[in-house]
Amino acid sequence: MFEKLFNKVSNCKFKQAESTLCVMCCHVLEKNTPILSVAHDMEDIWQFFCGADGHEYNDIRIVTLSEVTEIDSCINELSEIPLGAGAIRASTEEAWRQYTLDVE
Ligand SMILES: [Zn+2]
Predict the structure, then answer these.
(1) Which domain of life is it from (predicted)?
(2) Residue 43 CB partners (closer than 8 Å, separation 6+)
(3) 39 Cα: distance to centroid of ligand 1 (angstroms)
(4) Is 18 within 8 Å of 82 (Cβ atoms)?
(5) Ligand 1 centroid from CA 57, angstroms
(6) Interval between CA 35 and ligand 1 midpoint (Å)
(7) Could you tell me the distance, in angstroms and rounded to a whole number, from the CA of residue 37 to the centre of ligand 1?
(8) 27 CA → ligand 1 middle, Å
(9) Residues with Cβ < 8 Å from 88, sequence gap 6 or more?
């Protein structure tokens, strides 16, 4: 698996390492649902979701940043989002709208 990743020309524009682990929901990873919701939490964890509500623990998958940008290279547009912020879009046709995460 790692050989496959390293032999490929990367299009990952994030300043974190391509091998950085991040969170993705199973709908994006396994059901080809587009990424509509992105968060960069205060612990520096990137999260990529389909935008539906009510994700549960079982819906969460761990992927690398390079896998995320392979799934959707538009995600590179969001590489500058600071900690504690995120972005959503209504569909893949729409522009991203950035927002600040509610910190509990
Ligand atoms: Zn989902």
Answers:
(1) Bacteria
(2) none
(3) 13
(4) no
(5) 11
(6) 8
(7) 9
(8) 4
(9) 36, 37, 38, 51, 96, 97, 99
b/e map of 82-103 (b: 16 or more CB within 10 Å)? eeebbbbbeeeeeebeeeeeee
pLDDT, residue 2, reads 57
Give the pLDDT confidence of 82-91 residue by residue, as tens digits: 999 999 999 9
Domain count for the chain, please give it. 1
SS3 73: helix
pLDDT at 103 over 90: no
- Which residues have CB less than 5 Å away from ligand 1 (the ion)? 25, 27, 50, 52
Q: How many CA atoms, within 13 angstroms, populate the side-chain half-sphere of residue 91?
A: 1
Q: How far is the CA of 25 from the centre of ligand 1 (A)?
A: 5
What single string gives the DSSP state of each residue in 5-38? HHHSPP----SS-TT-EEEEEHHHHHH-PPP-EE
